[in-house]
Design goal:
The protein has about 400 residues and is α+β, with helices and mostly antiparallel strands. The protein contains 17 helices and 11 strands. The protein has helices at about 1-15, 15-55, 65-70, 80-90, 120-130, 150-155, 190-195, 205-210, 230-235, 245-250, 250-290, 290-300, 305-340, 345-350, 365-380, 385-390, 395-400, and strands at about 60-65, 95-105, 110-120, 145-150, 165-170, 175-185, 200, 220-225, 240-245, 340, 360. The longest helix is centred in the N-terminal third of the chain and has 41 residues, at about 15-55. It is elongated and about 100 Å long.
């Protein structure tokens, strides 16, 4: 009996081919657009988090206590070289970098602005986060007082490659000191504070400029395989402040939550469209075949078999629509992952929010599994109203009627 019902359900699903195909296309196109939006949203956040980790804090960062609040170089990490060696020997630690930063005033002949001078080792930074990828010039060098400046800070100061700037701040003894630097490259990390207020130069030069011992730094950043190591580090280095990426940048956590909300709203809207589409087709299909169902009930067919047939018809339509949408959505996602979505027309607005002008999608299996469950659920729920009409059917009156 089940095989017969299954065969009838499949054939009846495509009795009105044009009507069914329209619903399948509607499901497929809606689903593929939803998958593309989810992939773009998630890819945008993943890319921002990745670049923020690579350009600044890594998964974990160590600071002297009070430094992040006071931003004063008197709060610095002692014996940083020894700590770096210890961390590099730890299992799960992929890279460690030392940085020295100081807040001050950066000036040109016409403009001035508050900024942070950050001393880095380019070789270590390349291993840590491929620093050269953040500049159009690729790998740069810091010889002859060379420096790299954030893109927004460069716009503020109206400087370009080859321009000279003066950075002034208090050194470790409290004396006002200045250093002349020549711009070798402009960096864009999508990390707003860095792009808007950072200038990088060689860490040895900064040590000398600030009159600091070479073994003292203001930050130790780590790339690790698992952030759970943070608990061990907090116990080992109690005199230091040990923070994870999301603790240092809570905005990223908020952005992740916002993306989940956006994706949920999009998902909900698409599922409503799917539900209404299948409901309309099934309801009209049942009205067209109301006499057929009346005869089936009159000759003794149980209502549960009719109900099963209608549910299967709806599931078949939903499943074929899902397959079409999954294939189409995967094609879109693969394209967006490889080539991205170019939004260069809105570059200024995007950069102000720390976003790139080309957004790349990510692909997750969960996109397809959750959508499958949702579409199948919508397909089943959409037949409740048509089934109610059949359940209340009077077979004698239907057979006597002209319809």
């Amino acid at each position: 009996m089940f095989k017969l019902i299954l065969k009838m359900a499949w054939k009846n699903s495509f009795v009105r081919v044009s009507r069914t195909l329209l619903v399948i296309i509607m499901i497929g196109v809606s689903m593929s657009m939803m998958l593309s939006i989810q992939g773009i949203y998630d890819g945008m956040v993943v890319n921002m988090i990745d670049k923020n980790k690579r350009s600044d804090s890594g998964e974990i960062s160590l600071y002297a206590k009070e430094f992040r609040v006071e931003r004063d170089i008197k709060y610095r990490i002692q014996n940083a070289d020894e700590i770096k060696k210890e961390l590099q020997l730890r299992e799960g630690v992929k890279a460690v970098v030392l940085r020295v930063s100081a807040d001050g005033l950066i000036s040109t002949a016409r403009k001035s602005s508050f900024a942070s001078l950050i001393g880095i080792d380019l070789e270590d930074e390349e291993k840590f986060g491929t620093f050269s990828e953040f500049t159009k010039e690729g790998k740069v060098a810091f010889e002859k007082r060379g420096a790299v400046i954030g893109i927004e800070l460069a716009k503020t100061l109206k400087v370009k490659i080859g321009s000279k700037v003066i950075f002034s701040t208090q050194d470790s003894s409290g004396e006002i000191n200045s250093i002349a630097l020549k711009i070798r490259a402009i960096v864009q990390t999508t990390n707003i504070p860095l792009d808007a207020g950072a200038i990088y130069t060689d860490i040895k030069r900064v040590h000398k400029f600030l009159s600091l011992p070479s073994s003292e730094v203001t930050q130790i950043a780590l790339r690790v395989e698992n952030e759970e190591i943070v608990k061990e580090l907090q116990l080992k280095y109690k005199e230091l402040e040990v923070k994870t990426f999301l603790e240092l940048q809570p905005m990223m956590s908020m952005m992740q939550d916002m993306v989940v909300i956006f994706n949920s709203v999009t998902f909900f809207i698409v599922m409503i469209v799917v539900f209404i589409g299948i409901l309309g087709v099934m309801y009209v299909s049942i009205l067209d075949r109301i006499r057929e169902f009346g005869i089936m009930i009159a000759v003794g067919m149980s209502y549960k078999y009719i109900r099963l047939q209608i549910i299967l018809e709806s599931v078949f339509i939903g499943f074929v629509g899902y397959l079409f949408g999954a294939v189409l959505g995967l094609i879109f996602l693969l394209y967006l992952k490889e080539y991205g979505l170019d939004l260069s027309l809105y570059s200024d607005a995007l950069q102000s929010f720390g976003m790139e002008t080309v957004l790349y999608a990510t692909i997750k299996l969960s996109y397809f599994t959750t959508t499958f469950v949702a579409i199948m659920s919508a397909s089943i729920l959409s037949v409740f109203l048509p089934l109610k009409k059949i359940k209340n059917l009077n077979p004698v009156e239907v057979i006597k009627s002209d319809k």
